[in-house]
Amino acid sequence: MLRENEKKAIALVVKAVCEEMLHIEIPPVIYKRIPEMTAPNQQILTTVGGNSYATIFIDPALEWTNIIVCAVAHELRHIKQYYDVNFDARKYKQPHELTFEEYNLQPEEIDANAFGEIAMLMLTDSKPRWNGMTEKIKAAIGDRKREILKTEFGINNVENNVE
Ligand SMILES: [Zn+2]
Hints:
By secondary structure, the protein is mainly alpha-helical. It has one domain (4-162). 50% of the residues lie in helices and 8% in strands. It has helices at residues 4-22, 67-82, 100-104, 107-124, 135-153, 158-162; strands spanning 29-31, 44-48, 54-58. It has a three-stranded mixed sheet with strand order 1-3-2, covered by helices on one side. A hairpin with a 5-residue loop joins strand 2 (44-48) and strand 3 (54-58). Helix 2 crosses helix 4 and helix 4 crosses helix 5 (135-153). The structure holds zinc ion (ZN). Zinc ion binds next to helix 2 and helix 4. Residues 74, 78, 109, 112 line the site of zinc ion (ZN).
């Protein structure tokens, strides 16, 4: 169960990632479990499109760990993608429509996971282990991470800085 001070920490992460890293409007964050969270371990998700800008939903039963920073940044990145012509939201498939590997190899997921890892590293000095991900997925996340660091943050000697 998330405590009040942990929710404040999440609000700071959301603000920092939106303003300093993504340059997007800060979305509302609502602490509520919603039916779209279909898997039991799915506790954070974003709705984009429709009439509203975007909303982040977080299951209040979530327990605080650093990985929340990665998960929140991942969701915020999906908002940025929605307004980015390089991504096509109409092609994006939900987890139940694909195999685990196919789902995670979608460009949107690779990009969001790579960005989530960068944000977690920058804000907490720790990084996700990607337990359960296949080598192919991990390699794709690594490649995208290096690309984002170079093109969006001007960091070229990635191996020395973040590996
Ligand atoms: Zn995602």
